[in-house]
Amino acid sequence: MSTFLAAFVVLLLFFLLMSVGYIVKKKAVEGSCGGLGVLGIEKACDCDNPCDARKLRMQKEQERKEMLNQNRII
Asked: Is the model more confident about 74 or about 25?
């Protein structure tokens, strides 16, 4: 029984650490192969005009990329 509890605590600890890392990075979760981005697909739907929330996310992502490029060391 103690082995089970120890394994369960370790598993919970890993989940906690992974969730903290996800929250801190504020980055979308991606698969190891890159998901739809590898195929050149920007969005999952086929609509021509993205919704307002998507436009806001795209704008924030673009601003973040520009800020990172400005603050590059190399």
From this structure: 25
CA 15, CA 57: separation in Å to the nearest integer?
27
Closest CA to 28 of 61, 73, 68, 69: 61
Give the pair of three-digit tokens for residue 22. 């996800």
**Number of residues assigned to the chain:** 74
Q: How many angstroms separate the CA atoms of 66 and 64, rounded? A: 5
Cα–Cα dist 57/63, whole Å: 10
Q: Is 50 exposed, middle or buried (0-12, 13-18, 19+ CB in 10 A)?
A: middle
pLDDT of residue 8: 96
pLDDT in tens, 7-44: 999 999 999 988 888 788 777 666 666 666 667 666 66
